[in-house]
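Supplementary material to the annual report.
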Amino acid sequence: MRFHRKTALVAAAAATASLLTGCGAADMTKQASPFANAQGSKTVTLSVQSWVGAQSNVAVAQYLLEHELGYRVDTVQVDEVPAWDALSQGRVDAILEDWGHPDQEKRYVKDKKTIAPGGGLGVTGHIGWFIPTYLAKQHPDITDWKNLNKYSSLFRTAESGGKGQLMDGSPSYVTNDKALVNNLKLNYQVVFAGSEAAQITQMRQFSKEKKPFLTYWYSPQWLFKKVPMTEVKLPPYKDGCDADTAKVACAYPHTPLQKYLNADFAKSGGKAAAFLKKFHWTTEDQNQVSLMIADQKLSPADAAKKWVDTHRSTWKAWLS
Amino acid sequence: MATITASAPRAALPGALRHRPVQKLLVLAVIAAVLVPVASARWTGSSWPDALTVDLTKPLGSASNWVIDNRDSSPLFLYFLGYVSNAVVLSVRGVYLTLLAAGWAGVTAAAALVAWRVAGVRLALGTAAAFVACGLLGMWVPTMQTLALMVVAVLASVLVGAVLGLAAGLSDRMHRALRPVLDTMQVLPAFAYLLPVVLVFGIGVPAAVLATVVYAAPPMARLTALGLRGADPEVLEAVESLGSTSRQRLLTARIPLARKELLLGLNQTIMMALSMAVIASVIGAGGLGDRVYQALASVDVGAALAAGIPIVLLAVVLDRVTGAAGDRLGQETRSTRPWLYVAAATVAVAVATRLGGLLDWPSGWTVGIAEPVNRAVDWMTAHLYSGVPVVGGTADWAAHFTTWILDPVRSGLLWLPWWSVLLIVAALAWLIGTWRTALTAVLAMALIGVLGVWKPSLDTLSQVLAAVAVTLVIGFAVGIAAARSDRCERLLRPVLDVFQTMPQFVYLIPVVALFGVGRAPAVAAAIVYALPAVVRITTQGLRQVDPAALESARSLGATSGQQLRQVQLPLARPALLLAVNQGVVLVLAVVIIGGLVGGGALGYNVVFGLAQGDLATGLVAGIAIVCLGLMLDRVTQPTERRAQKGA
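Predicted assembly:
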């Protein structure tokens, strides 16, 4: 490793020298993580978003990159929008699950061309309002939004101030809930749990006591296996009905989730880039891994190993 | 420990003391009588008037767009910020590769040997044990990443702090200009620093390092200035009479005389930097903080703890070693030979492990603590959450706390007309401080209104007030108990040490499991975080009460309760006030982070701003937090500044 230390020192000296002489430009759009490529290994940096489904994608990709292709993988947890920015600067090489960010897509993919699309993940995402299934059995008509006001007293909590509580999760997630409550004239208060971890903890506590709750939630999500939930029907989604975020009065769309790669990495990332472009699995697969991570508390690496051991044919195709 | 400088001059004139507050209040009443009718006639309603707000959404939005669009072309970025960013990346990388090249045995040996040289055998063993524990927890590589980042951040902070401190120590004008800035920076919650740095440098290590430097440099600057200014004038005169130049005086007399303060500054800087390690993971610092953050995303308290423990261990070790180095000053011999031995031994160990092929931490040598911890947490939440006979479950307490305390305090604050809030702030700040501090506090509060975040700020304020009240009640009770019983204090000490260095994030999930989502868990986390400092300061203050005073009270036949009430507590008043001040500052820091568990208000806005890259929301909330912190500090701060933050 002496060699690498020396290169680093030489590079540092060179940088200082050019800093002092003031010549040359330092391009902020081309910056890798300082922890990348340590000890001569090829490193891929993946962005992990805060939800467990995203952790599963990354865990399996990481496992295969490390064990089949000989890469070293660094992961960084970044929120969705900042992750786009980090991706465009090369601080991360890939995002494996994106739920649709039209503004960022226009800016970085179409205009600046610093991010390249990496194809679909194979999983379709859907956001909606959910209630626990035990509650839907008690009150069958509660699953229509028109009847929500009738039941608002069921969902009252200390935080919702006399109205029913609609629980939202992390502020980083795509949500129109405040506008929806407003435009559908619902007697509800949106309460932000602040993070998905907090939201899940609260939902499990509620379901343990069979208490009613109404929450913003999304599929695919491993929690459905633990807390069965039924979706509340909102006015149907039509193309463009969510164009004006203040006037939204319709349900969320079904989004085929996308992968994105840093443009340079997509071009010159070798086997790793090719592998990540081919990475494509089903909702079922993702849930299996997520459940192992979040419910059985396996480490992401162990969960990935278990899945990889039993799904050879699926991932062999990604490597070819 | 913070040195407590009481309002000594005032005690000498009891007559003036009795009249000053009345005078101040009268002046305020006159001002209010003139201004309030005008204000309330012009702008009705109790909330801050819309006419007096400035909407920054547009300019901040376009500023953020400008940065993103011009980052790869503007000379400002290409020729200045780009280099800063590259320099940070390269130096962190250099340190990281060096650490990896030394291998786990080399790093452990080097750390232990250095600790042995500066602090003795016991701390050397402790240091080695701490590093081995990091490896045992399976956290060796993340620990090295954090360590690399910390080394660079601490060096940069020390450099920046020392330069600023030197300037303030040598020039009176610089001192006057810098002091309020440094004072202010020390009371700001770390969370408020993140957004502006992220905007310029993007998510990643450079942003994390710079945010850490901004947070950790002030104590170094402050203590350097303090050390230089506190040098014994007689010694300086003696040196001067020898005909030395001013540079010689600085190098041979003033700096060596200030060694103790310089080391204390280093110690403080390291502690502040480490406490930032986890918070900075929100903006991509990587390392241990990122592990904590990722584990919390899947509600895995055990894994979060496994990554949190190395941070605590690093903090405790560095604190003790630098502290011991400070105590040993003046005893050491000025020979460099032992250091050569240390270097040689380190290289030998590193080479030996290289040859033995043990460079990486052996993967079999890890202990999984996540599972038992999670089981314990699950048991706690299953049995305490609700339905406990007689006392009710924690969820019920949380609901009652919210409806009976938090809600009334919040609606009370919102009910107060805005001008009366300003008046109350002015009165409190002026009674405890000077007209200058009162003016700062009022202006800070007014700025919150002008920025249009009056309501969320009062919401945050209500949480702070409730949390501080609970913290003080518990903290004073425990502090008094610890001051009166040595055994109690000995039992408490390690507990306080751990709670104080634990990353704030680790508290968040267990409090959600116990108290649900909302403001109650945010307040609970804040209380747990602020308690140790309050307990410590209270205990120390009570113990420093002049024994002669106690003795005379005892000889007059006072019972121990009377001694406490009539002698100890009044004499410890400065310490108790300091405890209040510290409690408020620490509570605010965590109530803000409580935005992640449903605390809402300003904390939520900051989280939202970071998560959505929405500068307008995040930065305005950040400024409001700064103002709130400033106001709370001025309102609770007795005349003289304390020497440093934390206990």
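The two ends of chain B are 5 Å apart (CA to CA).
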